Amino acid sequence: MPTYLALKQVDQWLIWGRWTLFAAVVLIAVSMFVLVVQRRVLYMRLGVPTLFKRYARKPKSKTSFSGQVLGHRKLLNDVRSGIMHLVYFYGFIVLQFGAADLIWKGLSEGEPLPLPYYNGFSLTQEMTVTLVFAAVLYGAFRRYGEKLPRLKRGWKPSLVMWFIGSLMLTVLFTLAFERLSAANGTGASVVEASYAPVSNQLANLLESIGVQPQSAAAHAGFELFWWLHLLVLLSFLVYVPQSKHFHLLSAPVNLWFRRSTPPGRLAPLDLEDEEAESFGAGKVEHFSQKQMLDLYACVECGRCTNVCPAASTGKLLSPMHLIVKLRDHLTEKGAAITSKSPWLPAGIWQSKSNAPRAHVMGAVLPAWEAAFEGETNIEPTMAAQAGAWSVKEGAKPEEVELIGEVLTEEELWACTTCRNCEEQCPVGNEHVDKIIDMRRYLVLMEGRLPSDGQRALQNIERQSNPWGLPRAERAAWIADCESRTGIKVNTMQELKQQGKKADVLLWAGSMGAYDMRSRRVLYDVVRLLVQAGVSFATLGLEEKSSGDTARRIGNELLFQELCRENIETLSKYDVKHIVTACPHTYNTFKNEYPDFGLSTDIVVEHHTELLARLLAEGSLLPVHTIDERVTVHDSCYLGRYNDTYEAPRNLLRAIPGVTIEEMERSRSNGMCCGAGGGLMWMEEHSGTRVNHARAAQALEVKPSVISSACPYCLTMMEDGLKALSADEKVIARDVAELLAESVFGE
Q1: SS3 of 190, please?
Q2: Pick from 403, 384, 325, 334: which is nearest to 359 by CA?
Q3: Contact at 8 Å (CB) between 451 and 705?
Q4: DSSP string, 504-556
Q5: Angle at the Cα of 485 (from 482 to 486), degrees rounded to 5?
Q6: What angle do CA 506, 635, 598 make, to 5 degrees?
Q7: Long-range CB pairs of 106-111, under 8 A, 24+ apart, other chains included
Q8: 260 pLDDT above the threshold of 50
Q9: Residue 413, SS3?
């Protein structure tokens, strides 16, 4: 009897010891997890809080939120990786129940959780474990077998595969040893073999190599793998917020608080704020807290860089590396400012006397030169970024320069602001506004920008056009239009003097007013409006630059001056409806001028939208056949900024004889022509010219016409065709020109 009582006492001590050790390990891991998350939140709080107002939720956007978080809508743009991630996502949700059951078994001497249909539950768990493990193997193949250029390789990207793979294997081995340790017994935790196909086969394999049922080895195996599973699970928990996998927590929050304003709409600067020490972002803490949340939401999937026109044509800019470098810098600087280490458990033993160190951009690899015009390849940019971003011993994080040491000016001036990076990002990151904020700092605070960009800004300031042509010639197109078409275009001032008023203001824009090629498009728009009986007029000499170029380059002061002058002119004539052939002007009037007082009641339309509506109403009738094979180049500021893809295509579909051949990259994934973000007025100094690459993509579908709906795009496509020595039969035309030819037969 004493021996029995002694053994029972030992068993009781073992049970209590297991519970105590379990509680201690869990408490330590959860505490470190909470601390790591809290410290990163503390770093984010260094940012500007006021701009969160731009991200108020819209009631109707919940469906979009669930579609991205639960449906992986953007991840499925790449079907294979999207499905793989769906397996991870829902696999881990399902396996949480299995993990709880497995942990409880270890703590309760094999008793399972009282779950209904336990056999079916066990089968679901084993199938899910197998699927997730297969997804891990496939993910490793994608990264190291296929070697997708957009994916990083090295020990860090591999670590999570080892974590997840180890979790799955420890689950299977724990279940297999459980079957052996309870075999021939009455253990309720052992399910029927048919409901445990994987663990049962694994148990049979273990038995074949000498692990006997109900043996000490079987019990020891269960104990070993049960603890291994727990330790790997808790280690993964602590690792997640210290890695890119923090997106598991931050991405849903980032998507919930994504902007409620139109895509790409820039936040205004209060230039009259007398307390402001600087404008734009010259330090990481100048970014808003939402912008900092972006940094910790990044998955490093490389989808943004994969579609970036700069990265794919040999420039240094990589949107993914931009976010990662900002995140590294924020983490290091945040730790230095708050004296809170971002790393646990390593940070527990970190001494304040340790020499400072910080990541900086070192020497960059030589610029890649394309093997032939039109080639796109992100690998050289990826390699350059990976090689240049390194730790500098002795560098104090709080003294590292944001522009120059974290991000180079070359990167900032390579961005075309096309927003394809944002369109493809599965976690809702916004790259462009950060780049513009840093450009603002360079231009407004330090006066640093490329000389050709400076020249364009000076010309806009002096003559209200980027070429510096005389302001007095801005209305010359009106007389030229009359001589070519016989149509007299009235100005708003002339009509007001006559006591009349036009229904529509036709905004010519700088390209339409000065560029001879763009004038031809404007004249066809005029002819079509007259044919449809639309009452319209223009501003003539009173028209100024919309300010889009100035704003995207970073001169917010010049933009706001032009904006207020234009709004004053529009108010003078009580304009209610604006039509323009320039998507950049269209986007600025529609989405950004309201921040400065333009009435939201004013209708702003792109010429393709108005013409498509006139066609639908029957006011225009294209009757002449045009036998052309047409491919559509989508303007970024019309498409991704304003979700207008169908209007240009509707015009083409209405023309008899026209067949549309879509490029591989079209609509929301269309490649930029290279002119946005002020780059229309700047030279490219490395790699392939973006417009050459885009023209080459268009030629792949063997069109006779490359159509566009933007004067910038039209110019860039024509230049690209000339540079590629394309067949002279392939020409670039605006969709309005094609419609006019069908309507008038000329």
Answers
A1: coil
A2: 325
A3: no
A4: EEEE-HHHHHH-HHHHHHHHHHHHHHHHTT--EEB-GGG----SHHHHHHT-H
A5: 55
A6: 45
A7: 106/18, 106/222, 106/223, 106/226, 106/227, 106/230, 107/18, 107/19, 107/22, 109/15, 110/178, 110/181, 110/182, 110/187, 110/188, 110/189, 111/188, 111/189
A8: yes
A9: coil
- Tell me the β-bridge partners of 473: none
How is residue 632 written in tokens?
């559509």
Residue matched to tokens 């400065």: 596
By DSSP bridging, strand 536-537 and strand 628-632 are unpaired
Nearest to 198 by CA among 133, 130, 121, 136: 130
Mode of pairing for the β-strands spanning 536-537 and 658-660: unpaired
Q: Which residues of 634-659 are buried (b: 16+ CB within 10 A; e: fewer)?
A: bbbbbbbbbebbebbbbbbebbeebe
**Taking the C-alpha atoms of 33, 39, 43 and 44 in order, what is their torsion angle to the nearest 10 degrees?**
50
DSSP 367: P
Q: What is the DSSP letter of 54?
A: G
**Would you say residue 603 has pLDDT above 80?**
yes
Element (H, E) at 580: strand 577-580
Cα gap 222→244, rounded to integer Å: 33
Q: Using an 8 Å Cβ cutoff, are 436 and 537 in contact?
A: no
Residue-wise pLDDT for 559-600, tens only, equals: 999 999 999 999 999 999 999 999 999 999 999 999 999 999
CA distance linking residue 152 with residue 158, whole number of Å: 9
Three-class SS state of 718: helix
Residues in the chain: 746
C-alpha span between 458 and 545 (Å, rounded): 12
Sheet of 731-734: strand order equals: 658-660, 628-632, 705-708, 731-734
Query: What local confidence, expressed as pLDDT, does residue 369 receive?
Result: 52
Output the six-digit token pair for 463: 């003559």
User: If you average pLDDT over residues 57-62, what whole number do you get?
Assistant: 50
Taking alpha carbons only, the member of 636, 666, 671, 631 closest to residue 652 is: 631
The model's pTM is: 0.93
Predicted confidence (pLDDT) at residue 39 exceeds the cutoff of 50: yes
Alpha-carbon distance of 83 to 70, in angstroms, equals: 12
Please name which of 246, 258, 374, 383 lies closest in space to residue 318, comparing C-alpha atoms.
383
Query: pLDDT of 538-554, one tens digit each?
Result: 999 999 999 999 999 99
Which among 309, 313, 303 is positioned nearest to 380, based on CA atoms? 313
Supply the pLDDT for residue 353: 52
* pLDDT score for 526: 98
Q: Is the pLDDT of residue 445 over 90?
A: yes
Angle between helices 118-140 and 197-208 (to 10 degrees): 80
Q: What is the pLDDT of residues 79-103, one digit of tens each?
A: 888 899 899 999 889 999 989 999 9
> Measured between alpha carbons, how far is 674 from 302 in angstroms, rounded to an integer?
20
Q: How many CB atoms lie within 10 A of CB 442?
A: 20
User: Distance (Å, rounded) from C-alpha 724 to C-alpha 305?
Assistant: 25
Query: Is residue 706 helix, strand or coil?
Result: strand
* CB neighbours of residue 328 within 10 Å: 18
- Give the strand pairing for 357-361 and 389-393: antiparallel
Closest CA to 465 of 505, 514, 523: 514
Dist. CA 89–CA 455, nearest whole Å: 51
